[in-house]
Amino acid sequence: MDEVFTLLGLGLVGFGLYDVFRGLLYPSGRGTISFWVLRLVWRLSRSTDHRWGSLAGPIGVVVVIVLWGMLQAFGWALVYYPYVPEGFYYAEGMNPEEYDDFAEALYISLVTLGTLGFGDVVPTGAWLRFVSPVEALIGFALLTATVSWFIQIYPALARRRALAVRLRALQAVGFAERVAHLDRAGASRTVDQLTADVVDVHVALVQNAESYYFREVKEDAALAVFLPYAMEIAARAGESPAEEVRLSAAMLSSAVSDIGQHLRTEFHGSGESTEEVLGAYATDHGYSTGPGRRSGRSRN
């Protein structure tokens, strides 16, 4: 029976580490836990009309981190459980008979995972003395990985917001209506920069899928609101008499279609045309379906 607990514990530890690897280290990977937790939190937020939508992403990430930690803590507790208390030395004045064996195993696991031990309880078994430092190293690595996760997410959000603000500024001056009549070099350069920004945001979304669930507090910085305007710019630029502007327009249209396809496939699953997909993206985030039909709402 002891071996069953040990194997079950090692299985939990291994599954947790694999999920961290899939979610944080594997290129464009998505861990099972992060995928379902973030999706569930997002659905709960959407069911309340995103009343606290800006908190959905951060809450989801925190819940995922807590679950990763719990998998390690309970997994290692199951590994230690068959050897409590015989496999450990207790400080003078402590009576191990006063404590429940599994609660004690969980305590040992938590202080080891948090790199807080050893003090009152020290492993004495040969292999326990080996695996305890391994758990401590895993705990330190998990802490480092979760910090790096936040470091990865927020630059992706910054790029997304920058593109939204840029599109909003272009909309404010009526760029789409004027692009076909502007100087070909200036128009082409502006459209090309938009294409590069859209591609950059697309790549960031592929590498940091969890950033989708971070809803903006204000619509003025919401890409879900302003991304359809990029399609309008591409359509109007495609009417330019200058070939280089039409080529730039085709590239922008392709880039927006690509990110729209990714949004439909990986997230909301709605819409056929690019316009419908982008409208569904805005709706999923609680905004009106397009920059010209803004709801005027700003929720926390």
UniProtKB/TrEMBL annotation:
Q: Where is the Potassium channel domain?
A: 81-152
Q: Which InterPro entries does this UniProt record tie to the protein?
A: K_chnl_dom (IPR013099)
Its keywords, alphabetically, are:
Membrane, Transmembrane, Transmembrane helix
User: Transmembrane residues, as ranges?
Assistant: 54-79, 136-158
Q: Which domain of life is it from?
A: Bacteria
The name under which this protein is listed is Potassium channel domain-containing protein
